[in-house]
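Task: sequence design from structure.
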């Protein structure tokens, strides 16, 4: 599309959304004229590069966009944990912009996507301060699933997943600490990628738990995920034989939802066999306390971030989030030490595993997208049983959607030793 037409189309798609979805998903939209102008500038840069490569002949020379600017002309949305110059960052809250200086420059991930040719069209809502997995937010509305409005998208990157699944943009940035890309990708039928903690693209995001916070993104198709992955991460080295295994859902969750377990297990079995009994035993033993360790480390770090705001802004927090962060301030030192020891044990087990394997496949979610009534503490814990091992391991994860017979979706986590694993293009090209 021409830049002006593309900007107009995004506005038309936003306007066509149900009001509840629009309110819950969209935090800020770049004015249409500004978006069109930015897309025009990106187009102009490519034209100038083309003319520059034409040499002295003055003839036009074809430029392959995938080589010059891999994401040229792609409008994307940015989770509202990342800064854009001159735009308030609220992180799903109502007060963060009042206690934190207005951003003077774009976050590193926005700069990176700009370098790759993409244009930021707006920012997306999330679970308040990224502390939740189901997509609930009392300030802007619980985020409804675009195709099943009586169900939720998952979170915390709820707005980013919802607006890609709704067809507003082909790409949206999220974050993943305990599953915040993996879970909404699975429930919304999307591809998702989680990078690693400490990566430059997450360092300047507003934090939840820095030990485990990562950046990531969503796409609708495998081809779009491959293009964006190659642009952001870079091509990997080829490997002749990739060694992987999968864990059936029943080995992780005692009473999984039958249709989800059966379908995810069948999809995983097409990618790789189950592990040897000894390998499975070592992993499950290392992960025994993973959920408790994740919650202890994650919430204690969140308390550190929020400790000066919890009292004066008590009434402005989601009560559930406030209680989580406040309670974490009272964790005994022994509890935190045990959690850190568990983290070390999990990482040691992963190192041993990846000395002999290239990837492992786990279910991403224990059931299809939930209704509001289904969003219980028990659901949160069952999700974390699946997601916490990779979070504690500080590992990259590719999420692939799994259609269910009901028309809903689940997903698989393909857990990797590094973001640039050759497993990613192999799976996305299958």
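Answer:
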């Amino acid at each position: 599309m021409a830049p002006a037409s593309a900007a107009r189309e995004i506005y038309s798609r936003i306007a066509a959304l149900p009001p509840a979805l629009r309110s819950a998903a969209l935090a800020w939209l770049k004015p249409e004229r500004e978006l069109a102008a930015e897309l025009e500038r990106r187009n102009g840069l490519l034209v100038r590069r083309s003319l520059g490569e034409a040499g002295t002949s003055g003839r036009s020379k074809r430029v392959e966009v995938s080589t010059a600017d891999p994401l040229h002309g792609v409008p994307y949305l940015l989770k509202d944990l990342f800064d854009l110059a001159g735009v308030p960052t609220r992180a799903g809250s109502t007060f963060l912009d009042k206690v934190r200086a207005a951003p003077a420059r774009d976050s590193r991930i926005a700069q990176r996507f700009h370098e790759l040719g993409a244009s930021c069209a707006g920012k997306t809502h999330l679970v308040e301060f990224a502390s939740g997995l189901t997509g609930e937010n009392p300030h802007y509305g619980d985020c409804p699933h675009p195709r099943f409005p009586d169900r939720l998208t998952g979170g915390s990157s709820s707005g980013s997943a919802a607006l890609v699944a709704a067809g507003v943009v082909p790409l949206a940035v999220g974050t993943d600490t305990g599953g915040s890309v993996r879970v909404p990708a699975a429930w919304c039928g999307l591809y998702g990628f989680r990078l690693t903690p400490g990566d430059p693209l997450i360092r300047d995001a507003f934090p939840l738990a820095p030990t485990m916070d990562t950046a990531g993104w969503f796409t609708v198709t495998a081809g779009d995920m491959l293009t964006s992955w190659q642009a952001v991460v870079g091509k990997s080295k080829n490997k002749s034989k990739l060694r992987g295994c999968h864990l059936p859902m029943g080995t992780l969750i005692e009473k999984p939802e039958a249709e989800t377990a059966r379908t995810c297990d069948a999809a995983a079995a097409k990618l790789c066999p189950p592990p040897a009994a000894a390998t499975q035993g070592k992993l499950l033993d290392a992960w025994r306390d993973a959920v408790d360790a994740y919650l202890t480390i994650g919430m204690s770090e969140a308390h550190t971030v929020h400790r000066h705001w919890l009292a004066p802004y008590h009434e402005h927090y989601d009560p559930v989030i406030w209680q989580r962060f406040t309670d974490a301030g009272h964790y005994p030192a022994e509890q935190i030490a045990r959690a850190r020891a568990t983290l070390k044990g999990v990482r040691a087990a992963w190192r041993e595993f990846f000395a002999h394997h290239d990837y492992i496949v786990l279910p991403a979610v224990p059931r299809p997208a939930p209704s509001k009534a289904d969003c219980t503490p028990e659901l949160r814990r069952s999700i974390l049983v699946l997601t916490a091992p990779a979070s504690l391991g500080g590992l990259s994860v590719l999420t692939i959607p799994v259609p269910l017979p009901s028309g809903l979706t689940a997903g698989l986590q393909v857990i990797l030793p590094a973001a640039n694993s050759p497993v990613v293009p192999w799976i996305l090209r299958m």
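Residues 47-67 have pLDDT under 50 and may be disordered.
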